[in-house]
Structures are given as C-alpha cells and as structure tokens.
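ingest -> validate -> predict -> emit
validate: passed (alphabet ok, no gaps, 81 aa)
predict: started
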Amino acid sequence: MMNPNQMQNSQPLFNENTKQLIQQIKNCGNPQQMIENIVQQNPQLGIINLLNQCGGNGKKAFYMYAKQKGINPDDIINMLS
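emit:
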C-alpha cells in the first residue's frame, strides 16, 4: 500500500495529452478510422491493439500478425528452433 507521500508523487492516470486525444476521438465523425490512423503512425499501439483483440494471448496475436503480413508463422518458429 502506498503512503500519502508516494501517492502525491505518482503520475496521474491520464495526462493532458491523453485527455485531449480521448476528446478528439469522441468528437470525430469516425472514431474507428481515427484510431486506425493513430495505430498506423505508431506501430507499438498496433501491437497493443492486436493483443487486446486476441484477449492478451501473445501466441494468438503473433499468428494473426504474421498472417496479416503474408508470413507463415510456423516458418518463423521453425527458424528459431
């Protein structure tokens, strides 16, 4: 459990940039398209989104990502074995 001093120094859950982004998504006409554009600009967010789509299952996300890129995921696994 955090003491009061630690709680004061911890980062807020949502900073101002995050709040602005959430507001932009709410106000745009097509939130899904906006999210897709953001993901294209930042591949790390795409991976997080893919993991969320796969229920946090890393193996399933890896297979899905490889197939989206036209790669046989088993070939990659075999190369690493």
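The chain has a mean pLDDT of 78.
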